[in-house]
Amino acid sequence: MSIHTVDVVQLLHTCPAQPDPHPYDIRRTVIDIIDGGPCRNPVTIRCGTTVIQIRCGRHEPTKRQCSACRIVVIERTITNLYPTDQVAG
Questions:
Q1: DSSP letters along 30-78, please?
Q2: In a domain, 88, yes or no
Q3: What would the pLDDT profile of 51-85 be if each residue is shown by its tens digit?
Q4: CB-based contacts of 69: which residues, under 8 Å, 6+ apart?
Q5: pTM of this structure
Q6: Which of 4, 15, 53, 57 is the most buried (most CB within 10 A)?
Q7: Would you say residue 8 lies in a domain?
Q8: DSSP state, 18?
Q9: Residue 76 within a domain
Q10: 43-67 in b/e burial notation, b at 16+ Cβ within 10 A?
Q11: Is residue 87 part of a domain?
Q12: Tell me, what's the pLDDT at 29?
């Protein structure tokens, strides 16, 4: 299983259509990646006379991927920012 650790920064605002604070810009920074190793169940792809094998993570849905290709994302920190709409001057 590959583990990706990220930090999330959300810019929040309120508007007349939705008065509760909600994010309008979400940015993720990758902090660390722990590779799961080589694929344990490669998939054979045929195109005409060409035959290649690719990682199952590139072809199969998540529930059919091997444990090495499956990705888990861990959000280390989530920061909410309320930028001001006023310009100094």
A1: EEEEE---S-SS-EEEEETTEEEEE-GGGTS-GGGS-TTT-EEEEEEEE
A2: no
A3: 999 999 999 999 999 999 999 999 999 999 988 75
A4: 2, 36, 39, 40, 41, 55, 56, 57, 58, 60
A5: 0.70
A6: 57
A7: yes
A8: E
A9: yes
A10: beeeeeeeeeeebbbeeeeeeebbe
A11: no
A12: 97
The domain containing residue 73 runs over which residues? 2-81
Nearest Cα to Cα of residue 9 among 74, 73, 76, 79: 79
Backbone angle region of 49, left / alpha / beta, with phi > 0 → left and psi within -120 to 50 → alpha: alpha
Q: Which residues contact 42 (CB under 8 A, 6 or more apart)?
A: 53, 54, 55, 56
pLDDT at 89 over 90: no
Confidence band, pLDDT 50/70/90 cuts, at residue 32? very high
